[in-house]
Amino acid sequence: MKIAFTKLVAPVQGVVVIAVPEAPKGNTAKPMKGAKPVKAAGPALGRTATALDSRLGGAIRRAMAAAEFTGKRERTVQVLSPGDGKIKRVIVVGLGDPKTLDAPAADRLGAVLHTALEREQAAIVVLEDIGAGKTGAATIAAHIAGGLVMKSYRFDKYRTKEEADAKPRLNDVAIQSDAPGEAAKVYAGVAAVNDGIFLTRDLVSEPANVIYPETFCQRTKAALANDGVSVEILNVAQMKKLGMGALLGVGQGSIRESRLLIMRYNGAKNKSAQPLAIVGKGVTFDTGGISLKQPGGMWDMKWDMGGAGVVAGLMHTLARRKAKVNVVGLCGLVENMPDANAQRPGDVVTSMSGQTVEVQNTDAEGRLVLCDVLWYAQQRFKPRAIVDLATLTGAIIVALSEHYAGLFSNNDELAESLSAAGRNVGERLWRFPMGDEYDRELKSLIADMKNIGGPRAGSITAAQFLKRFIQNDTPWAHLDIAGVVWNEKGTALAAPGATGYGVRLLNRFIADNYEG
Ligand code: BES
Ligand code: MN
Ligand code: ZN
């Protein structure tokens, strides 16, 4: 998508969007007895829109009145072929109260515009009166463009028979505002985030016959090739040497060999400053193993590498926007298959930490992968903090549905910064409790722990398992993203399928807490 930022000038041709703030509510005080209620004025057009409307003989105002348009946020009115035919159509979009317009609201407005415009090739978006709130006109304009691009993503490479006129065509958008230079600067950062999200969505959308540990590494390496991110890939023999018995046990039933992908980006002034570590669960397909899953919906488990997908996308974003921070991203990549060589329920594996685990359920495999990657990350990189992302439990979907991801942490400050970043970008987190009461559930008769708890609080016992692999109270947070990686109906900012949830959140978390 080509995005350009330009000054406000009344367009003379093409497809035009004009953004209109909500009409002031008028006098909300109760009218005196017997007095007529005060009638609110209609929404006001800005200077550029007014000039356009005059040239079109008032067609825009007439359409707004006929549609009883109040300027409510995200409401649209279409005016087809007004005037001399050079203006093909005008879309009026409501801004709502400009004082409450912030970046997430602007993202969603942009997404609404994509839906309204996708059949067109090009459009001019006139943004007047967007600077009244705390956020500022440039950031609002940049995020309207960003939301539009975010919503434009489609994964259609395997659709060979889609009719051309069913595909969105929009690829050229000019964004007019009174701060185009500054908006373009802000947009560079927003575009870097979108690039990361698109990489994540690509990796997550691919089926498991295409993306498996080796190809996940290849794809990611290729995507990061010009980013100045150093990529290292450990194979099975190397992981064996390191003693990663828990991770390797999960992958041993698959003909696809396991991998550990390590991506290092050093953007801080001090290149040897302790990095932040971001760890992702990368189960490229989760059949459950010998503890086989039910067939219904099992195909969903192609996105059981969603955590790893976010780590790859985030590294791309950080490098593209030249973030001033040192970050190491690590993805534990395995395929969990039932096979003659698969691990059995009851097997005992030795993790890299030396702790032994009785694998009572081979479908609780994510924690087995993560425990070795978490341990390795700490041993090798001594990170100042660790955040892991994983589609770890079905129980988190029971608890939160698709609206929040679960947050678990040993550190209140870290938990609060992550929550705040989530609120600021509109990717929300909900923190769960942790404690010895839950940890006790992991007691095993013959090993240091088993890999499942009881039937209750399954997301918390999974987090307790991970916590046993965190050394010396290193600040650590675990995000259970099982409910938010994939959305069957689509979200405000994503078509049905992969959402890319987590890239914006962690990018913001890093920008607010670890840069400058
Ligand atoms: N990948 C699944 C969790 C999952 C389920 C993600 C549904 C997305 C949608 C994970 O490996 C798993 O199977 N967890 C088990 C754990 C149980 C055996 C303790 C679960 O949640 O049922
Ligand atoms: Mn599983
Ligand atoms: Zn899984």
Description:
This protein folds into two domains: 2-180, Leucine Aminopeptidase, subunit E, domain 1, CATH 3.40.220; 196-513, Zn peptidases (Aminopeptidase, 3-Layer(aba) Sandwich), CATH 3.40.630.10. It is built from 15 helices and 19 strands. Strand 3 (76-80) and strand 4 (87-96) form a beta hairpin. With 516 residues, it is α/β, with parallel strands linked by helices. The structure holds ligand BES, manganese (II) ion and zinc ion (ZN).
Salient structural properties:
single chain, 516 residues, alpha/beta, Leucine Aminopeptidase, subunit E, domain 1, Aminopeptidase, 8-stranded mixed sheet, 6-stranded mixed sheet, binds ligand BES, binds manganese (II) ion, binds zinc ion
